[in-house]
Amino acid sequence: MTPQRRHQKVDPAHGGWGRYAPAGVPKQYKPEPDKGGRMRARIPKQQIELLGAVPLFSSCSHSELRSVAQLGTPITIEKGEVLIAKDTAGREFFLVLSGVASCRIGRRQVAQFTKGGYFGELALLHGGIRTADVVAETDMELLVFDAREFRAMLMTTPGIGVKMLARLAERLADADAHYSN
Q: What is the band of 40 on the pLDDT scale with cuts at 50, 70, 90?
């Protein structure tokens, strides 16, 4: 009796990822060749520098930033694509490598994200429901981080988590001081 082999069909609705598409990669997006689905070995210096400019990660060492950057999945987005939809579950963080996205609440633009900009950072730690829409205003390149992979990395590298908590505490204290006056 020969063992049966299981063949996994590639579901076209998952953009060629198969059924195990990372949560941060919407179904319509396709990975770049040899990127995504696993930790990347070579990380462009620019991505590490952009990640280090994100306040949540600004206290991390170069080596820690590299560990975080390895979790990112580079994706290319076309103008008009909805990156985040209001009232949906948040499971990913986006770092803008190039292009422009706008954040909207209803018809009102409340923020714009360009190279080095980021959004969805609380989804890495908390999840929760998205409070705004984010739409690509131009073609874009993004680095997307999946919350599940990120939490697993924090379990093995708790020093990054401690630094992130300190930065979040600073942000909370600043917000409290701002709104208390």
A: low
- Give the range of the structural domain holding residue 104, as residue numbers without chain letter: 42-175
pLDDT digits (tens, 9 = 90+) for 51-85: 898 888 888 899 989 988 888 899 999 999 999 99
Give the number of domains in the chain. Answer: 1
State the pTM of this model.
0.69
| Residue 57 CB contacts under 8 Å (≥ 6 apart), including other chains | 51, 64, 65, 68, 160, 163, 164, 167
Helix 62-70, helix 147-156: angle, nearest 10:
140
Q: Does residue 169 lie in a domain region?
A: yes
C-alpha–C-alpha distance, residues 118 and 103, integer Å: 11
